Request: fold
Amino acid sequence: MTARVLSGKEFAAKFKEDAAKRARALEAKYGVTPGLAVIIVGEDPASQVYVRNKDRACAELGIYSEVIRMAADTTKDALLAKIDELNYDKRIHGILVQLPLPEGLHAEEKAILDRIDPAKDVDGFHPVNVGKLSLGEPALVPCTPSGCLKMLELAGIPIDGQRAVIVGRSNIVGKPMAQLLLAKNATVTICHSHTKHLAEVTREADILVAAVGKPKFITADMVKSGATVIDVGINRIAPKKLVGDVDFEAVSEVAGAITPVPGGVGLLTVAMLMENVVTAAELQLAEK
Ligand code: GUN
Reply:
């Protein structure tokens, strides 16, 4: 079998189109353009690229965007003061602090992210949003897992009653992905580095999500024939060579559907961020 390849580009274009339409509707109703502020501290080269992509997506969709660049030696207090300012800024509906923070601020990451007003937390990392997601209440949800779910739905992949296995238990992908699939009535298992007989568990999956950060970790013998395989990994194995957590060549001979890397889930993340900015703006404007 050769798997159907789920192209991130196609789905991202559709998500962005939806977000742009909703942004125009807000402008028509309230005369307000949704706004995103991204704070980047230091000079991490990968982060510079991500932030540029976010800024470009805003421009493309007609979303107001501010990029706030702060020096690598910025203090915790200075960063918190900037977040407070943005929390009160009426033009800004979404705030994102780009990770990773420079080494000097690593220990302060939680305090910094928790300072963002949950209503503006477009990363969905704030404990209030994490709690709401786990309670099944409307929340701002982390962009990568919400993009994966929306792609599965749009691609017509059944979720209800299906067995979903997620490899990786991060707060950013694994855990929220599990909550989202559970809310859609999948039977969900989360595997991690201590899981025994991993391949036996992954072979049970109708939907297999790989989010471990290890190049080509998921091999063909770990996948059930016809399964849908979502690859969230982005691993740089050479200066210009990115691979996912899934051995794409071999697994696409077994799977029913698969996302490539690059050109897969990564493109959905920015598109879902745009959607989260619009959702945050809708909720804030409706409350006035
Ligand atoms: N760095 C890499 N991915 C992300 C993300 O989704 N959000 C933030 N804030 N930083 C990141």
Observations:
- Residues 8-30 form the longest helix (23 residues).
